[in-house]
Structure formats: C-alpha cells, structure tokens
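Our collaborator T.R. sent over the components below with a one-line note: 'Predict the complex.' Nothing else. No constraints on interfaces, no templates requested, no preferences about which chain binds where. So this is a plain run: every listed entity goes in together, and whatever single assembly comes back becomes the starting point for the next discussion.
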Amino acid sequence: MNCETSPMSKVLGPRSKRSFFRLWTLDVGPWTFHAGLRGLLPVLLGMTLSCKDKTDTGADPSVTTLGSTEVTAELMAIPGEFPPNDLYNYAYVLKYRVLAVHRGQIKQGEEILVAHYNPLKPRPSAADENSGKLGGNLQRFKAGDVHRMALETPLDQHWMGGVIDKYFDQKGTRYWAVWTNKSNVQGPGSKVE
Amino acid sequence: MVSLERWKKRPTTPATLLHSLCSPWPSGICMKFWCLGVWVVSFLLILLSVHELYSNDVRVAQLSREVRSKGWIVFSAREAKNDWDLFVMRPDGSNRQNITQTPETHETGGRFSPDGQKLLYRRIPKNTKVSHDQWGSQGQLVVANADGSNPIAIGSIGEFPWASWSPDAKQVACLSKKGIEIYDLASKKVIRKLDRKGIYQQMFWSPDGKQFCGTANYYGESWTVVRMDLATGSVNPINKFQNCTPDWFPDSQRIIFSYRPANQEVLDGGKRAQSVGQQLGYGWTQLWMADLEGKSKTLIYGEDGRHVYGGAISPDGRYVLFTRSNMDGGGLEEGGAPIGLMRLQDAPSIGGESPALRKLHPKTKDGPVLDLGMGWEPHWTYAEVGRKK
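Returned assembly:
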C-alpha cells in the first residue's frame, strides 16, 4: 500500500509534512506509522487528562494553611434553596463525604456538616467585614462536586449570625468553611497528594 | 342627532338638570326622589369621610396630649451633614433636640438606663457604613448622662458589643462570638460568662434581671426570637422564622418583637412590593408580642407596604413605639423611617388599607397612631432628661 495514496494520508497530508509524526514512529514504514499513531492518540489524550487531574487537587497556599482542618470532600446534596443575601447575611449548612484528609482529626469516608457563608456568592468575592477571612476559587455550589476546604470549628466561635441548618436534627460538629477550592479528584480513596 | 325640540328643552338650571337626568328612567318609581336620594347619600358619605378624617385627627391629637409630658424618647436620626446623631424629644414629637452633634462620627442605638439617668450608645466612625442589623457590634460603646452630656467611651472599637443595661445600671451584658459576658461597668471586668446558645444579635437584659431576650439560631431556624434564663443558661423560642428586634415589657413577662410571617397573601397585584423593589411574596414585617413561652402571640401593629421594626414599650407598659419603613431593614439606609406611637390597648391595629392583613385580622381596633417623624431604634424613659433650650 502506497503511503501517499492511503486513506490516512488524506487526513494527515503529504508525507513530507509529517516529520512530527516520524519522530514518534521512527519512520519504520508507512503502515507502522499509521498504526502507531492510531494507538498513540488515545494514550496522549489520556495522559493529558491524567496530568490535568493530578494538578487540580484544589491545593493552594491558602487552603493548605488556613483553618485547623483540611479535607477534600464531595458535596452530597444542597438541601432546599439558598435564600437571597442582599439584605441579610447567613451561613448555610451543607453535607459532605470526606474523600481525603490533609489536616485534622476527621476520618476518610466520614460525613461532615460544613457551614458556608452566603453561598450564593462566588467564594473569591464572598468575604466581607462580617465574615472574617474566607475565600477560595469555587464559583458556585453544585451537588456532587468535590471541594478542597480549610475548616474551622466550633462554628459559634467563627460566625455570629444567621445559620440555616436543615440537618438540625443530626448531632455533630458544624464546621466553618474558611477556604473552598474546586477539585477534580473523583471518588473515595483517590490519591490527592 | 339631537333634535331641535330636545335642544330647546335642554336643562338650564340645576333643578331642570336633575329633572332631565331623572326623566329617562322607567315609570312607576318616583325618579325625582330617587335622584334626590342619590345626592343626599353622596353628601352624607362625604360628610362621613370628613368626619372620619376629623375624628382621626382628634384621636391623634388626644393621644398627643396624653403622652406629651410622659418623659423623653431617644432615637437616632440622620443629620443634614449625612451622619447619624442621637436626638431626644417629648413623646408627642415636640422639643426635638440633637444631643450628640458630632459630624465626624455616627451615633446609634441609644438606650436609657432603667433609672433614666444614663444613656448608652454606639459611636461609629463616619467612614463605616452603619449596618441595620450589626450596629450593636460596630464602633465603640459610649456611656453618657441621659441628656447626652459627659460622654465617656468604654473600650475601643468593636469592644463591648451589643451592650445592654443591667436593672441597676451598674453592669452591662455583651454578646460576641466568645459568648455572653457580663461586665462591671466601673471596673470593666468580666464578672460572669455564659454560652450564647445561638443568640447572635439584639440581646437585651430583662427589667427583673433574670433573663435575656435576643435573636438566635434555634434548631436549624435562624432569626428566631428567644429568651434565655440567666440562672440555668437555658433558652426557649418565643417565635421562630423571620423575627428580630425583640425587647422587654416592663413586667418582664412579655416580649415585643418584629415578625415577617411566611406566605403573606398579595392582594394588590404586587404594586407595593414593586414600588420599593421588593420581591413579590417577600411579605411585610409586623409588630407582635408574646408571653415568655411563646404560646400566646398577638399582633400589635401591622401595615401592608411597611416593615415595622424597633418596637419599644413605654416604662408603664401603656404605649408602644415603632418604626414604619417601606423598605426592609428598618429604613436605615434611607435615613430612618417614620416613628409611630400608639396605645397598647389599641392592639391589634392595622394601618392603611392593608387588605391582606385585614383579611387575616378582621377584628382590629385601629387606634390612633402618632407620627413622630423620621428616626430609628427609639427608646423611652419617664425620667426628666431633656436639655433645656
């Protein structure tokens, strides 16, 4: 089979323009080249995505240093609807499943309750004179997303204002979210560091 | 087409006009009398309206005379220089005097001591936006004579938040993230600490010294008015969901508070809400009172189109002060709201047309309400404190 007339050449162009691919196939023959490329593309794609996953753990200098506890956790659900906060500030309690523990005494797989300040606001612009220091890169809260969070406790010592807690009948600590970053880590037990 | 004959017979006097209006009606009824009746009824209705307006004015005037000499009211108001100052006035609105006159700072949250001799308030830097629900923790605490003289700053900015007088005015209870701390005013030392049990603002010490009331998170519900027993530290709810600005009755047996009930009916097509940029279905805040268990709750004053806040009872428990803001938040951002004064015996009263509220509360007394001008967070003492002009 002539390489220049093969179906693949119509896609890739004349052989003279394929020097980049020659590097990968070591130019051992046209068929080897095509077969190698076909196999290589998914691998390259997979490697790219894999690299992206590894770099998006949500770690940054703030989340790794602020608060007394740091976890990567999956937001399990958003109970109800966030009320507007144009006039009244509030914290809203959300339930997470912990995927990884970076600092603190929480156990992996544990469900925790985290109070977020004015959750309708993107984290980079959520802080104000009432909230104290807080932030992150998360733009909006969505059930199923994974967040890397720096947390503080007890909530009462860090926020004095309205708290909407739909899990009020469940005992346990309410954490105060100091820093909340989005993370692409998936599933329990994922390696995040 | 009008015929010439009919044109010639056209009415030229009121009597013939009346006659011509009546004449087309079916026979068998004395149309002239019928028309006369319409005129008489209309006239009577006009007379009635005039009388009602007049009698309301009379009732307001009576109320005004009744309260004129009953001590003084302190309140915050915005000055021409755009800062908040403290003012005192007679309960009929007369003798209004600025007692702080500090263009470089704001003054808010004035509260007379129970004996009426002292006044505490917050002094807030001019560049700080006074918050309608965080004012108690803004700026610094100041204690002055009741007429505003000899103001002394107690601590620095942010200290002694939400300070509230003890019955003997020798202590103040403060509310912060750390909890409730009771300070001896003379030494400024903490003499007792309590868990705040979810209370986060507007905490006030009862006249009997045994309880606090405040706005709190309670079993997942924010903006719940609660009572705390000082002996045990236990808390019970007075009213849940969208409540604030609680305060005590003089007998320490009841609490007055603001409440915005859920699912309020909209009978004006949302016109009032639209006019102030409020979401349809947001509702209007009303003034309520309840016993200490929150079992017996009664509307004091409400008005569709107004948010009623800052309820304060007169020292003898006979009158009520409040503010009527057309925007939520007590009108702080707009320079306050009209301060109203009514008799407690006239509760429940409803202001304005308020069709939705009247539907819910058909048996209201609608007593006179004295309009005392623009202000915010009024408080009342029967002591003689006003400066002489």
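Summary for T.R.: Helices of chain A lie at 7-12, 19-25, 30-55.
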